[in-house]
């Protein structure tokens, strides 16, 4: 296990309602206060509930450095006539300090292309947001042994517009490796597979930015749960987890956070 502080993120996706999500965060805070896990925790609620969740954290006097808030997506445009969109600066108004970009559901369900993802990265980083870029291959790409090729393309295209900024300061960028076939399927990638891809991502980041990037966190996501978290998080170059399904259960999520 390395010494870097781990980041464990809860991606609630489009789940729950006001009542159930308030209960979820209240239950989670109760366990959190008892256990005090040593990692940084990030909650990514549906954006319409950001304010309510933020109020619960304030009410329970939880320091924002311990449990942060983030948005699951941001607009690829600055404020203007873009109906239905939320700009990165708007999410800041709701105490968001993180933005998730290029999640596989955005890429595959909403057909977000690499140009759009690069624009979002640029806007988010320019706005000084902690920015999590998701990368990962589909099952067809995995079967054709194209994982590294896909990840190289996704990293290069997303970071290219921001590379000048990142060369002088890469403290705000985080990568999440989420194999598409492992998301919500219960099929976690093998430890060897995760290890291999994460060290590949580290090498690509070093090459793209031309510097040692050991301080850039690389998270793993895809069917992480309370039973497999500890072995995944003990791998080198795994600096945290991006958790979907299991983050909707406060007990399972606190178990993941305290498995470090
Ligand atoms: P699951 O943990 O449900 O597989 O989801 C992973 C994910 O997509 C997190 O962003």
What this model shows, in words?
The chain is of the alpha/beta class and 260 residues long. It has a single domain, classed as Aldolase class I (TIM Barrel, Alpha-Beta Barrel). The chain has eleven helices and eight strands. The longest helix is centred in the C-terminal third of the chain and has 19 residues. It is globular, with a radius of gyration of 17 Å. The model has no long low-confidence stretch (mean pLDDT 95). The site of 1,3-dihydroxyacetonephosphate (13P) has 14 residues, from strand 8.
Structural domain tally: 1
| Full CATH superfamily name | Aldolase class I
What would you call the structural class? alpha/beta
**What is the CATH domain class?**
Alpha Beta
Bound molecules: 1,3-dihydroxyacetonephosphate
The portion of residues forming beta strands comes to: 15-25%
The helix/strand series, from N terminus to C terminus, equals EHEHEHEHHEHHHEHEHEH
Tell how many strands the DSSP assignment holds.
Answer: 8
Average per-residue pLDDT, rounded, comes to: 95
In angstroms, what is the radius of gyration? 17 Å
**Portion in helices:** 40-55%
Which stretches of 5+ consecutive residues score pLDDT under 50?
none
Specify the number of helices: 11
CATH architecture: Alpha-Beta Barrel
Largest sheet geometry: 8 strands, parallel, barrel
Separation of termini? 9 Å
Major β-sheet strand ordering: 1-2-3-4-5-6-7-8
């Amino acid at each position: 296990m390395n010494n870097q502080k781990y980041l464990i993120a809860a991606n609630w996706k489009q789940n729950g309602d006001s009542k159930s999500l308030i209960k979820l965060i209240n239950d989670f805070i109760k366990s959190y206060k008892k256990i005090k896990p040593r990692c940084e925790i990030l909650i990514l609620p549906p954006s319409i509930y950001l304010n309510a969740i933020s109020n619960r954290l304030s009410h329970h006097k939880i320091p924002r450095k311990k449990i942060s808030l983030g948005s699951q997506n941001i607009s690829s445009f600055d404020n203007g006539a873009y109906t239905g969109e939320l700009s990165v600066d708007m999410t800041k108004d709701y105490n968001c300090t993180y933005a998730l970009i290029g999640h596989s559901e955005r890429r595959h369900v909403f057909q977000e292309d690499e140009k759009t993802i690069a624009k979002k990265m640029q806007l988010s980083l320019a706005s000084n947001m902690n920015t999590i870029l998701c990368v990962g291959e589909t099952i067809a790409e995995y079967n054709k042994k194209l994982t590294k090729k896909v990840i190289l393309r996704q990293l290069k295209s997303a970071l290219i517009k921001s590379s000048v900024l990142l060369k002088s300061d890469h403290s705000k960028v985080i990568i999440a490796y989420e194999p598409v076939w492992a998301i919500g399927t219960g099929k976690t990638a093998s430890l060897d597979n995760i290890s291999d891809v994460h060290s590949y991502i580290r090498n690509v980041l070093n090459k793209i930015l031309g510097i040692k990037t050991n301080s850039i966190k690389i998270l793993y996501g895809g069917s992480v749960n309370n039973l497999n978290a500890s072995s995944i998080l003990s791998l080198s170059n795994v600096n945290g987890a991006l958790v979907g399904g299991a983050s909707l259960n406060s007990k399972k999520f606190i178990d993941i956070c305290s498995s470090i």
